[in-house]
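Async update (no meeting this week)

Hi team, since we skipped the sync, here's where things stand on the single-chain job. The sequence we agreed to prioritize is pasted below, unchanged from the tracker. I ran it this morning and attached the output directly underneath so nobody has to dig for it. Comments welcome in thread, and please keep replies under the output.
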Amino acid sequence: MKTETKLQMINSDFILWCKNFIKIMNNENQEVIFKPLPEQQELIDGMESNKHTIVLKSRQLGITTVVSLYYLWKAITIPKTTYLIASYNEDSTKGIGEKLKQMLYSMPDKYRPKLQRDNEFELKFQNQSRIVFKVAGNKDIARGLTLEGVLLSEFGMYDAEVQENAIASTDPCLSKNHTSTFVVESTAKQGTTDYFYKLFMNSYRNRSKFKYYFFPWYCESSKKNYKNEIDIAEQWYRDNNHGRMLASADIEPYFIPLYEQKLVTLKQIVWYQWKQQDMSQEKMFSEYPSFPEEAFSTSLKGLVFPIEKINDRYIYIPDPLTYNEISPLPEVLRPYFNKNLFVYKDLQRNMKYHMGVDIASGTGLDYSTCAIFSNDGEMVAEFYSNKIPLYRFAEIAYQLGRYFNYAQMLIERNYDAGQFAYKMRHEFGYINVVRTKKYTDKGRSFVYGFDTTATSKVQLIELFKNAFINGDILINSRKLLDEMKAYVMTNKGKMTGKASNDDMIIASALAVYSLTNNSIIRR
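Output:
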């Protein structure tokens, strides 16, 4: 094969190009030929078929390295294209640029392209392609550019107000061809308030144009990157356990599902425990997550629900059923299926169901929600929307209750003084609307729905919390777990969803109240 033909073949394939031309400093500070690790290869393969990509990762997997190198290859091989690489501060941005230049200058002299400009803000090649380095935070970060590639590195570290603007200001500048790519990547930031959390979770739940990738601490790349540390950790364990290595019978509960699924080895478990000595559990969750929801474990004080138990449930959470797996839905419910309405267990004809209903206040921030639990305590379905008028939500709640064997329906009555619950019983003719006890100056009476006063709300949530902790109920909703993860009690004794809405918590707590007070409530 002629040299020119061989060179053409190498330049047309990113992996071949890396193996032939690029060297990198490895974790042992040795210069070696760059060979993409499994997760790096998976990401690059995905980028070639997906314009928008978002990556949540464990630390030191080389994701920034491989994406910036991919853009270097494209800049060299495709004339007159521009690539933007941004990070959260000046040091981080400079670090990416310096590493990329080190790889560029590792190329053999006769194959390395000539540069017109080389400074800390830009690499410009003679073919008129360039790579621009910027610090996120400038509103005009992409002004005047038509971008073939965008990399927003360590996106979770950006200030909260910068994150959304970084997407909004750069995405319109992306070239409208079929080869341009937009990559957001980061380790997680503790808590669920930032835009990165929302962006990733929307992608994770198939509600976004972004294709998601999640690379946990036990992935194949970690095994190679942390090989020396894993050996050190094994010796540490033996030194502290009379020369004995960890046995499968001694694995802590946290690691059991990972070990049983053959996702981790005993040596990796020991490495995690060795690493954990100098970090809080929350820091480990964000830096070395096992699954996406764990990565964003909140650091809020005064959490009502135990974060460890929430994270344990995330591991086993089921996917919603498909349309072919459930009994036929009423026509009113069909447009919402697996968009707002999610069913986790098919209808059982002889089962009794309990349904909690929380009505949005009309602000646009609150959700109208329904949570349905079976009589044996398992969450079987949920509905939530913040874009639905009250009259339509009433129809949905009515049909949903009927569908689940005329579920025992308990409705929060705060915003409309019980009018929704009253209409459900008398205008819709729903036979199973729950009445609860209420005291007035005239004595005791029973009213449709549940008044969540400051006192009754605490009691309602405590009942739900205890049922969750004691294993009396089984939660199947990621949205509900997300809300629980950010639900706090303030210094004044008020319970509130500080970092997210709490509407699904209220609906679920009402359903559990109906379930546990089944013998004393009235209809």
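Quick observations from my side:
The chain has 19 helices and 19 strands.
The first helix runs from residue 3 to 11.
Reply here if anything looks off.
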